[in-house]
């Protein structure tokens, strides 16, 4: 069976499921995508816009190569790809097996749901009949009851049942006799005996006579349901479709917290005008209720004052949610910004929050935009809501406490709750059935250092199944999971669909093109190594370039700080070094590159001075360096044969990493006991902490971050500070550790560490920019003075150690990025094609990036982006030949005047002047067939099949002359 | 109300444009981008929203591919107005095609009066994929406004 | 009350210091969100909000804690406990602060201390509360004629409704004394 | 059903009419209340402010007495403060074995032992969940149809132990009140604190809190309570004249019992407007 095409089951058709499916499909594997609801798109089909673009952009997920295999349409209209079989409204029935050989059975909800599984309950006791009927009906089973065996036989004669639950001891005919008689009428009837006594003997006897099982009274409703569900599943399993797959990706997502059952302090469902953020999203949408207008859901009057409440079913022990849901802050920032900018009628947009979690690369700046637009952010938790005064029914009074302790009140028309993400019933059931390790809250716990891997080999996870996730992390994680599935399929010897069997009807189609079969990975940190290994493991050559003399990057200093990271680093380094497909080039830099994208010839030159090599390359960013003329091959550095080694590669992965930013403190920057976070980590690791008198440590978060100059949150510093604080508290219990913070950025499950630190006695002091605690340092040591916002008192502490969390500075130079047609974003990170939908790619999908030159993140995120980038690389490299889309642009050279207007017009850098023929050419893999070149070309030389002048003119003519 | 979307590949039916003197029913061409406005039009259709059928939709992959010649052609073929509608700024599937369209339409609006065509007869809008309602409203409003402008004389002029 | 006075008194009582440390530990995961304070029906009467008081406990500002009446004004309505997103036992901790405060025998809490002491003596003596006797002993102890006066109207009303019985059958002196003594023993 | 009955000290003193009406109501409903023999004070608010351990021992003694009856009956407590003390002790002793052992060493002094097996239930819990609603409906003949009633729950029967009702927006009394033919006032003060024992030492607190509550009750004919402390505060700090009656008094009247048998002459507030509206 070596010729078998690899196939992966993807469970869940949300964003993660779609991303993973597309990656696999693009790599040439087959995908079976199961989705319980009636459409793919998941939550995102309800969100019109995302931050930080305030637009949609979901279609950018679609593959850019071999576009003929899929429908070129908005994902809201549906998804279709030759290699993906999509089954919506479908339930997973069973899944068994091992990597390379999983058996899956699944059933369309239209082919017999529970309503096709009628149940007959036979008992002489009314209360038993009634309660069983109630429990089972609630779950969707049609239930009939009989109070005697005789009546049961009548009912059985009239209609067919799938299940009969019968009491054993009944007046008249007993249950065992009924069993025999019923089986005569309907041999395939599943019969379960019920007995008031633990009369196991009788029940076992009954089982010999054909009963399936028995239940002992009094019943636990769950036990009854489980029993009937089992029978139902076995019964429908016969109708179910069966398939065999090599790997499984679980992308079933999470569910939103429901604010109304149980304690409902915000009166959701009771107070008019209290809505969830998802409902508000529909109100904002022109396609939602109210259409173009933002109106109150009950009164229909225009809404002018809106409040957002954060942490509803998040960070709340009372709702069993000790974790943060990661995404709700940004959803509210987006909604408030949109409401304020789209509707001038909105005079008050106010977000009530505890910590505004604008973690990551683009969020904080987006929140500042919202502030500028007039959104009010109030650090307060509103405890509850009561309906408005009777006279003005729809005004909701919101009461909160400002930091000084004053009670404030405002009236709002609308209160938008931001409910958290919780594991759903499907996830719990699946995890239990498949014996996946879960965390305390029911999310699947990924294996350390293997993002997306579960405790079961061959079953991978992505998206909300491993904890609350935003789109960006979900999409990255989905690609990483796709890589894992590809690895399983490759090691099972599976093939990919190579040549589309479609006959070439039009001779216009360009011939197939191939990439150079190899990858260049720049940067030998953990991101680069992980990407290199993953690509090489799939059988492709990798050149790994590292400017220093060793591999490991930042993980070298971090290895003792992250449990298990030391041996992980060692293993990875050894694996990279031993891999026969990886060529390691240490003390090497990338000098320049030639050739076209996908057929790069890149020159590597040795780094002479290690001291220079250790400084980040960012310093080059501002230095002008002659750039290759756009559209022509890169310049050669000198005449004759250039020095260095030339490598040919079809993809490039930028993994140059970054470093801790230098502190910029208004006080003496080198005072006694002032450390950066990294320096302090090293001191901790070397046990170099002075343990004289009770230790006093002050940690400053956001030093130079989240403010002009470095507008992003580095996402790693808060968790690192917590880790260091906990370690100090563990090693020196009498120490005093104070963390000065703006917003503790502990999204998702890392919230638990924050709680742990508070428990351990770490003191947290919030401050606002402009009101930073003062640090004074002299020879005797440091003193920190501040005003505690809650106590309202001036406070002071001597500090033996002051630790500055300065954040991450990316180490990517603009020159290097531009060498491959990519660029830097406003903060100096790799400029992603789309931060949400194409997070590890440049606009040219052959240029990839991962690790902290892509975006700030911890080890797990770095590994996820590395594996995501590797997935993209592998899926490109595994195609021997690409057959460009039939809509690829062509050049009628006879008309072309080489004016190059089209080169500038093409958004994908697909057009260039071939230096040898001096003619204009199109890179068929980059071209997306948009037709912009054709519109731009003044001489009619640029043509796109079906989108050129003549057919368009015909179309216009036809449009105006239709009947 | 059903709308025929013209695909470039489609066979062209020949018929005369309706020009009725007493009850002026304008004819317009809307170049809609495949990713956003076309989806919105589709959504409007499936949501059973009504809008006047005076507007003939021509689906293009991107508003950035709308050659000025298409617009002129439409006017010459008898369109009383032309609408170009694409993705919201920042949302273009082809990154910046809609910005290119914006620049082009601005220029065209300056040129059109020289052809005797009121610049008001050329419009550019952004209608996102989920904006079915906005699509229908825009179309309705658009047609109303053309009615106010009266028939376009461009076609009647023999030479340009 | 000066900070040093409270601190001195506390230093002399390691048991109360320990008790206070336990309260602090219970409160450790407080995130100062203010839910307790905006929920509290009595917050308006307090000299500092419960949030500020808990912050003072966490920051070891015993001076602020015990120069405040805040915890004395807790009516044990449990709304804060119900709503606290950290699930902290706030109402219970309020009571514990009262215990520490009474233990410290601070002059500012003298009236409440005397009232509760009279109450406990009453139970110790009779097993059940004898309201008339309780009030009499309390008034005697506070030695302030204005206090009994403020309750006179109430007393007359109750008397009129035959609710005050100056001669309830006594259940014998020292009804629960052995239990109290044994409990005291057990605690030490 | 039969219950063990813990009246608590208030019901022997200032809240005698609560005790009288409770006993009378249950008799009329056909339930039997057996007073726990030799019960003593639960510690009230005082014990927990003075001595943590004693605040467990005092209620534990009463639980031990209840268990000693070996009836297996639930303990019915009309006073919310006593209810909470007993309930809390029961929960703590149930969960904390070392504490139970310690407490038992003390109780041995009285020849008692507690194992925390007995269920402690508030009067309102018993009335709403043990079928009283149907019986009241059968017996009341809509006698209260001319009344609008504001149900006032107070705090400690609802919080912190969420047993039988929503602790923020309680509704359990609604069905009982409607069963008498009366209308329920829609208000949001039913679970708002009256100041409880704080009002004893800080009267200005009680005055303001009660004022807020009664202001919202102005359209009702009476406020119905289930706690002697609430009743005392609501009656004592009245600025306007609002009749305040105990729930068992109200239900007793609905069943046609004579006012005197329900202690209706003992209320501090003027409840004649209620009595006069009962359909004879």
Please tell me how large the radius of gyration of chain B is: 15 Å
Apparent shape of chain B: globular
Mean of pLDDT of chain B: 85
What percentage of the residues of chain C does DSSP assign to strands (E)? under 5%
Total number of helices of chain C: 11
Low-confidence segments of chain B, given as residue ranges, are 9-21
Mean pLDDT of chain C: 86
> Share of helix among residues of chain B?
25-40%
Write up this protein.
The complex is a heterotetramer of chains A (963), B (160), C (188) and D (280). With 963 residues, chain A is of the alpha/beta class. In chain A, the strands form 13 sheets. In chain A, strands 3-2-1-12-22 form a five-stranded parallel β-sheet, covered by helices on one side. Chain A has a five-stranded parallel β-sheet with strand order 7-6-8-9-10, sandwiched between helices. A five-stranded parallel β-sheet of chain A has the order 14-20-15-16-17. In chain A, β36 (781-788) and β37 form a beta hairpin. The longest helix of chain A is centred in the middle third of the chain and has 21 residues, at 471-491. Chain A is globular and about 100 Å long. Chain B is α/β, with parallel strands linked by helices. In chain B, 32% of the residues lie in helices and 16% in strands. In chain B, β4, α3 (97-111) and β5 form a beta-alpha-beta unit. In chain B, α1 (37-46) packs across α4. Chain C is built from eleven helices and no strands. Helices cover 62% and strands 0% of the residues of chain C. The longest helix of chain C is centred in the middle third of the chain and has 17 residues, at 110-126. Chain D is built from 13 helices and eight strands. By secondary structure, chain D is an alpha/beta fold. In chain D, the strands form two sheets. Chain D has a four-stranded parallel β-sheet with strand order 2-1-3-4, sandwiched between helices. A four-stranded parallel β-sheet of chain D has the order 6-5-7-8, sandwiched between helices. Chains in contact: A-B, A-C, A-D, C-D. Chains A and B meet through α22 and α23 of A and α1, β3, α2, α3 and α4 of B.
């Amino acid at each position: 069976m070596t010729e078998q095409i690899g196939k992966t089951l993807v469970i869940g058709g949300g964003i993660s499921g779609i991303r993973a499916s597309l990656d696999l499909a693009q790599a040439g594997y087959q995908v079976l995508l199961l989705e319980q609801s009636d459409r793919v798109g998941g939550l995102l089909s309800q969100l019109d816009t995302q931050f930080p673009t305030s637009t949609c952009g979901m279609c950018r997920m679609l593959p850019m190569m071999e576009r003929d295999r899929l429908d070129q349409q908005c994902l809201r209209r549906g998804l279709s790809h030759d290699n993906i079989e999509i089954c919506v409204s479908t339930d997973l029935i069973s899944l068994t097996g091992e990597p390379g050989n999983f058996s899956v059975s699944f059933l369309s909800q239209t082919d017999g749901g529970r309503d096709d599984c009628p149940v007959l309950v036979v008992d002489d006791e009314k209360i038993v009949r009634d309660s069983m009927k109630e429990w089972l009906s609630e779950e969707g089973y049609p239930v009939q009851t009989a109070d005697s065996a005789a009546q049961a036989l009548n009912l059985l004669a009239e209609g067919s049942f799938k299940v009969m639950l019968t009491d054993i001891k009944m007046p008249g005919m007993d249950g065992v006799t009924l069993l025999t008689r019923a089986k005569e009428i309907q041999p395939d009837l599943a019969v379960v005996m019920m007995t008031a006594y633990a009369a196991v003997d009788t029940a076992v006897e009954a089982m010999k006579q054909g009963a399936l099982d028995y239940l002992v009274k009094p019943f636990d409703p769950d036990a009854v349901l489980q029993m009937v569900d089992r029978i139902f599943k076995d019964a429908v399993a016969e109708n179910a479709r069966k398939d065999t797959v090599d790997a499984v990706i679980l992308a079933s997502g999470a569910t939103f917290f429901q604010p109304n059952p149980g304690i409902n302090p915000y009166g959701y469902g009771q107070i008019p005008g209290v809505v969830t953020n998802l409902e508000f999203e529909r109100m904002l949408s022109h396609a939602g209720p109210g259409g173009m207008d933002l109106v109150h859901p009950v009164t229909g009057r225009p809404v002018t004052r809106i409040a957002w409440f954060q942490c509803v079913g998040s960070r709340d022990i009372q709702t069993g949610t000790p974790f943060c849901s990661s995404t709700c802050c940004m959803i509210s920032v987006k909604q408030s910004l949109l409401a304020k900018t789209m509707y001038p009628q909105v005079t008050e947009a106010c977000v009530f929050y505890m910590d505004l979690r604008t973690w990551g690369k683009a969020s904080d700046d987006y929140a500042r935009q919202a502030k500028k637009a007039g959104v009010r952010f109030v650090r307060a938790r509103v405890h509850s809501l009561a309906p408005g005064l009777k006279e003005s029914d729809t005004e909701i009074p919101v009461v909160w406490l400002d930091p000084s302790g004053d009670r404030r009140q405002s009236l709002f028309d609308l209160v938008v709750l931001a409910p958290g993400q919780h594991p759903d019933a499907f996830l719990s059931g699946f995890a239990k059935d498949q014996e996946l390790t879960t965390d305390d809250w029911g999310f699947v716990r990924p294996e350390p250092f293997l993002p997306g891997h579960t405790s079961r080999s061959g079953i991978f996870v992505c998206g909300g199944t491993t904890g609350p996730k935003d789109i960006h992390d979900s999409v990255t994680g989905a690609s990483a999971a796709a890589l894992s599935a590809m690895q399983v399929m490759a090691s099972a010897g599976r093939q990919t669909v190579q040549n589309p069997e479609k006959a070439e009807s039009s001779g216009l189609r360009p011939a197939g093109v191939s990439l150079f079969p190899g990858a260049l990975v720049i940067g030998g940190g953990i991101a680069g190594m992980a990407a290199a290994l993953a690509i090489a493991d799939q059988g492709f050559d990798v050149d790994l370039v590292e400017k220093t003399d060793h591999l490991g990057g930042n993980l070298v200093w971090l290895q003792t700080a992250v449990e298990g990271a030391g041996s992980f680093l060692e293993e990875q380094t050894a694996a990279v070094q031993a891999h026969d497909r990886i060529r390691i080039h240490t003390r090497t830099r990338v000098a320049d590159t030639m050739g076209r994208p996908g057929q790069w010839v890149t020159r590597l030159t040795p780094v002479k001075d290690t001291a220079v090599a250790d400084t980040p390359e960012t310093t080059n960013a501002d230095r002008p360096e002659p750039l290759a003329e756009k559209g022509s091959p890169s310049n050669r550095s000198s005449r004759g044969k250039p020095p260095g080694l030339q490598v040919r590669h079809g993809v490039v992965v930028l993994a140059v990493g970054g470093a801790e930013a230098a502190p910029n403190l208004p006080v003496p920057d080198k005072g006694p006991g002032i450390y950066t976070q990294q320096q302090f980590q090293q001191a901790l690791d070397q046990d170099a902490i002075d343990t004289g008198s009770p230790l006093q440590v002050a940690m400053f978060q956001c030093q130079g971050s989240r403010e002009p100059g470095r507008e992003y949150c580095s996402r790693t510093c808060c968790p690192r500070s917590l880790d260091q604080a906990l370690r100090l508290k563990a090693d020196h219990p009498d120490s005093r550790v104070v963390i000065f913070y703006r917003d503790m950025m502990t999204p998702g499950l890392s919230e638990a560490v924050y709680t742990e630190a508070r428990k351990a006695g770490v003191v947290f002091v919030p401050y606002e920019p402009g009101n930073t605690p003062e640090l004074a340092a002299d020879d005797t040591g440091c003193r920190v003075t501040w005003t505690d916002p809650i106590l309202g008192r001036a406070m002071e502490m001597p500090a033996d150690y002051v630790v500055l969390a300065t954040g991450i500075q990316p180490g990517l130079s603009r020159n290097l990025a531009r060498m491959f047609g990519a660029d830097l974003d406003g903060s100096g990170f790799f400029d992603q094609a789309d931060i949400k939908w194409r997070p590890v790619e440049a606009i040219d999908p052959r240029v990839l990036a991962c690790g902290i030159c892509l975006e700030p993140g911890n080890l797990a995120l770095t590994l996820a982006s590395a594996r995501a980038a590797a997935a993209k690389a592998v899926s490109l490299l595994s195609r021997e030949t690409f057959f460009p889309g039939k809509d690829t642009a062509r050049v009628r050279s006879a008309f072309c005047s080489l004016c190059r207007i089209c080169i500038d017009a093409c958004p994908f850098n697909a057009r260039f002047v071939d230096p040898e023929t001096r003619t204009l050419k199109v890179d068929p893999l980059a071209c997306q067939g948009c037709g912009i070149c054709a519109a731009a070309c003044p001489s009619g030389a640029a043509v796109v099949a079906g989108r050129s002048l003549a057919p368009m003119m015909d179309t216009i003519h036809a449009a105006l002359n239709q009947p | 109300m059903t709308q025929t979307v013209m695909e470039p590949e489609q066979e062209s039916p020949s018929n005369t444009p309706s020009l009725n003197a007493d009850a002026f029913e304008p004819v317009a061409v809307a170049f809609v981008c495949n990713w956003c406005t076309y989806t919105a039009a589709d959504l409007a259709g499936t949501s059973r929203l009504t809008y006047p059928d005076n507007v003939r939709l021509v689906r293009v992959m991107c508003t950035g591919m709308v050659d000025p010649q298409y617009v002129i052609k439409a006017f010459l073929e008898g369109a009383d107005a032309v609408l170009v509608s694409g993705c919201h700024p920042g949302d273009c599937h082809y990154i910046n095609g809609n910005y290119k369209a914006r620049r082009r339409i601005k220029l065209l609006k300056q040129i059109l009066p020289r052809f005797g065509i009121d610049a008001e007869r050329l419009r550019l809008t952004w209608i996102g994929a989920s904006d079915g309602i906005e699509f229908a409203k825009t179309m309705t409003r658009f047609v109303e406004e053309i009615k106010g402008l009266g028939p376009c004389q461009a076609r009647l002029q023999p030479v340009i | 009350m000066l900070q040093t006075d409270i601190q001195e008194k506390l230093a002399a009582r390691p048991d109360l210091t320990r008790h206070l440390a336990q309260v602090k530990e219970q409160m450790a995961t407080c995130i100062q969100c203010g839910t307790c304070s905006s929920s509290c029906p009595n917050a308006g009467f307090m000299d500092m909000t419960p949030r500020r008081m808990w912050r003072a406990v966490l920051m070891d500002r015993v001076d602020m804690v015990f120069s405040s009446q805040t915890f004395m004004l807790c009516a044990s309505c449990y709304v804060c406990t119900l709503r606290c997103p950290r699930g902290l036992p706030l109402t219970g901790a309020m009571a514990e602060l009262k215990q520490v405060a009474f233990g410290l025998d601070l002059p500012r809490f003298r009236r409440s201390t005397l009232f509760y002491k009279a109450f406990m003596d009453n139970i110790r003596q009779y097993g059940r509360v004898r309201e008339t006797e309780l009030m009499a002993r309390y008034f005697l102890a506070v030695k302030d004629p204005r206090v009994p006066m403020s309750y006179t109207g109430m007393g007359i009303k109750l008397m009129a409704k035959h609710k005050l019985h100056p001669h309830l059958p006594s259940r014998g002196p020292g009804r629960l004394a052995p239990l109290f003594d044994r409990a005291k023993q057990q605690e030490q | 059903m039969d219950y063990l009955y813990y009246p608590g000290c208030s019901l022997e003193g200032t809240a005698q009419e609560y005790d009288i009406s409770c006993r009378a109501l249950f008799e009329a409903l056909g339930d039997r209340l057996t007073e726990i023999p030799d019960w003593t004070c639960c510690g009230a608010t005082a014990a927990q402010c003075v001595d943590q351990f004693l605040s467990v021992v005092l209620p534990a003694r009463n639980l031990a007495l209840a268990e000693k009856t070996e009836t297996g009956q639930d303990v019915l407590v009309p006073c919310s403060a006593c209810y909470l003390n007993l309930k809390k002790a029961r929960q703590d002793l149930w969960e904390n074995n070392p504490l139970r052992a310690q407490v038992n060493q003390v109780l041995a002094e009285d020849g008692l032992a507690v194992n925390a097996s007995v269920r402690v239930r508030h009067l309102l819990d018993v009335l709403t969940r043990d079928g009283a609603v149907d019986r009241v409906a059968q017996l009341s003949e809509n006698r209260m149809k001319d009344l609008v009633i504001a149900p006032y729950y107070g705090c400690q029967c609802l919080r912190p132990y969420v047993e039988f009702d929503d602790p923020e927006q309680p509704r359990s009394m609604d069905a009982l009140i409607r069963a008498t033919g009366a209308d329920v006032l829609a208000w949001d003060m039913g679970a708002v604190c009256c100041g409880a024992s704080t009002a004893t030492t800080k009267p200005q607190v009680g005055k303001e809190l009660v004022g807020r509550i009664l202001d919202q009750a102005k359209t009702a004919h009476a406020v119905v309570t289930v706690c002697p402390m609430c009743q005392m505060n609501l009656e004592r700090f009245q600025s306007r004249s609002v009749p305040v009656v105990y729930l068992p008094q109200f239900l007793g009247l609905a069943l046609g019992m004579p006012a005197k048998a329900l202690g209706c002459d003992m209320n501090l507030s003027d409840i004649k407007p209620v009595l006069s509206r009962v359909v004879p």
